[in-house]
Q: What sequence folds into this?
């Protein structure tokens, strides 16, 4: 994949994640600040997760990539929950619930879109 194609793929993944997780935040909280927090979280976690994922996929095996995705998504889920706490969410339970719901929706959406070659 050429460099511009790589950049476009990473950018599309980030934009889709921001939209999907932002929609989840709005539906769950109806709070514009939580929407901003979701965007900030994704700007910090998504590019790194996807860039490392591409490296793992290209350097190692598909099996290694699957393991990386599972571990990486778990790390992102916990990291974003902690970030929601830093951004002012007083309830750890709510921070983890928001992070879980948002990440599950974006992850499953990505699987579906990739399965049908829609992205």
A:
């Amino acid at each position: 994949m050429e460099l511009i194609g790589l950049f476009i793929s990473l950018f599309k993944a980030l934009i889709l994640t921001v939209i999907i997780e932002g929609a989840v935040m709005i539906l769950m909280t109806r709070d514009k600040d939580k929407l901003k927090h979701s965007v900030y979280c994704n700007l910090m976690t998504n590019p790194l997760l996807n860039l490392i994922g591409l490296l793992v996929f290209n350097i190692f095996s598909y099996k290694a990539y699957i393991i990386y995705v599972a571990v990486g998504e778990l790390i992102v889920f916990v990291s974003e929950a902690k970030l929601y706490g830093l951004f002012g969410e007083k309830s750890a339970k709510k921070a983890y619930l928001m992070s879980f719901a948002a990440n599950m929706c974006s992850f499953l959406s990505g699987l579906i879109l990739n399965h049908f070659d829609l992205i």
